[in-house]
């Protein structure tokens, strides 16, 4: 199969981890007879520096013409005090909105080897396997006005949702629940927020269409607590934009590191942008020590959701599993008696696995 992929490295470790994903995908293409072509474009702070905008029109145009997009991360202290239209994060929000990527899937599944890497107790973490379905193009991030008033002493952010926006994400979440363990937790703040009341109303209406799925409504504050005390009680979580942002970083603790969580941002027709959940990690950027696995797992989601390459997607996941089983990890993960390596070395181990796996078609013989 021939596929054209736009790479948006962005800022900080985004630049480092996207390189890893490209390496892994190139190896996969060679082994499984695909042609992946890559085109790199600027976004975020890098784009502000070069084009005076966090989302240059040429970047958006290239994404519209691609089969899929991989994004590293945006942001960093250099741009923190820039005016809001020049903030790197605005480029990320704009591309999500422009491409209509309303459904953000954030699967949270631990790897066996990382059971002890989480600061949480093993018995709490061990059966956790959940999917956060985060609404991505509405809510607080997109409501107007969001500006200073009264000579800068007052400010407004608006949390706005339409019934249509809620219906389409809730509908998506029910469908994912149907193909998983058929349990949906809708997270809101319906004891306070009007938007959450409409959200809850829509979930209640929709559930009649999915009688095989059990539904629980949970307030976001107690959901945050339950996520790290009883994560196994969740299957699919559906929630609005900002709650999903916060809960997903929290959920990464179950996997041992924020550097392990991938995401897919999808449109109705299956077009997608794939990015790790983490940010540009300014504290470690440029040191060659970033964990590339969230980015590589995001590439695996791209293969699965946008290209329908189930086998190749599974190989990438197996590669991650195998290198961890062999003890290789970056410094953000704590593996007892493991081999701490840098981004490049870990990526090379992934690539070795991809090549070996195809030659032997057996995981055991690639890594013990
Ligand atoms: N999707 C995105 O582009 C995205 C997401 C989140 C944050 N950001 C931006 O990133 C910048 C930094 O934000 P932050 O520090 O709050 O969050 P962050 O996710 O960048 O980092 C949080 C912590 O996790 C660590 N970490 C994150 N990813 C890692 C990886 N792959 N390997 C090893 N360690 C990793 C970092 O070193 C840091 O200690 C901000 O400008 C923020 O706006 C961007
Ligand atoms: C950088 C920021 C705008 C972004 C978000 O909140 O959506 C990030 O935190 C994420 O999780 O993708
Ligand atoms: Mg976030």
From TrEMBL:
Substrate binds at residues 96, 106, 134, 221. The record marks 141, 189 as: Important for catalysis. Binds 1 Mg(2+) or Mn(2+) ion per subunit. Pathway: Amino-acid biosynthesis; L-leucine biosynthesis; L-leucine from 3-methyl-2-oxobutanoate: step 3/4. Keywords: Amino-acid biosynthesis, Branched-chain amino acid biosynthesis, Cytoplasm, Leucine biosynthesis, Magnesium, Manganese, Metal-binding, NAD, Oxidoreductase. Residues 4-350 form the Isopropylmalate dehydrogenase-like domain. GO terms for molecular function: 3-isopropylmalate dehydrogenase activity. It is found in: Cytoplasm. It catalyses: (2R,3S)-3-isopropylmalate + NAD(+) = 4-methyl-2-oxopentanoate + CO2 + NADH. Catalyzes the oxidation of 3-carboxy-2-hydroxy-4-methylpentanoate (3-isopropylmalate) to 3-carboxy-4-methyl-2-oxopentanoate. The product decarboxylates to 4-methyl-2 oxopentanoate. This is 3-isopropylmalate dehydrogenase. It comes from Evansella alkalicola.
């Amino acid at each position: 199969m021939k596929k054209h992929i736009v790479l948006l490295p962005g800022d900080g470790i985004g630049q480092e981890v996207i390189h890893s994903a490209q390496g892994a995908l190139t190896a996969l293409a060679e082994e499984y007879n695909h042609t992946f072509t890559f085109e790199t474009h600027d976004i975020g702070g890098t784009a502000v520096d070069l084009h005076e905008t966090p989302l240059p029109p040429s970047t958006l145009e290239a994404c519209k013409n691609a089969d899929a997009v991989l994004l590293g991360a945006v942001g960093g202290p250099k741009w923190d005090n820039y005016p809001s239209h020049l903030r790197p994060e605005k480029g990320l929000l704009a591309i999500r909105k422009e491409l209509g990527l309303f459904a953000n899937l954030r699967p949270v599944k631990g790897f066996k080897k990382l059971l002890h890497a989480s600061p949480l107790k093993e018995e709490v973490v061990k059966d956790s396997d959940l999917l956060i379905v985060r609404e991505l193009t509405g809510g607080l991030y997109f409501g107007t006005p969001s500006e200073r008033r009264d000579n800068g002493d007052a400010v407004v952010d608006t949390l706005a949702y339409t019934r249509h926006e809620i219906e389409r994400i809730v509908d998506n979440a029910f469908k994912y629940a149907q193909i998983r363990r058929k349990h949906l937790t809708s997270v809101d703040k319906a004891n306070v927020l009007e938007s959450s009341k409409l959200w809850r109303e829509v979930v209640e209406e929709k559930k009649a269409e999915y009688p095989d799925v059990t539904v629980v409504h949970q307030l976001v504050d107690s959901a945050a607590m339950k996520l790290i005390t009883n994560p196994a009680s969740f299957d699919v979580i559906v929630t609005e934009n900002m709650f999903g942002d916060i809960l997903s970083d929290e959920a990464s603790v179950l996997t041992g590191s924020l550097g392990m969580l991938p995401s897919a941002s999808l449109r109705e027709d299956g077009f997608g942008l794939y990015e790790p959940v983490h940010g540009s990690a300014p504290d470690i950027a440029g040191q060659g020590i970033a964990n590339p696995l969230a980015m590589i797992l995001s590439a695996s989601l791209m293969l699965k959701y946008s290209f329908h390459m189930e086998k190749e997607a599974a190989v990438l996941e197996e590669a991650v599993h195998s290198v961890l089983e062999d003890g290789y990890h970056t410094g953000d993960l704590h593996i007892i008696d493991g081999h701490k390596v840098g981004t490049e070395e870990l990526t090379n181990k992934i690539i070795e696995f991809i090549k070996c796996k195809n030659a032997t078609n057996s995981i055991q013989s690639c890594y013990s």
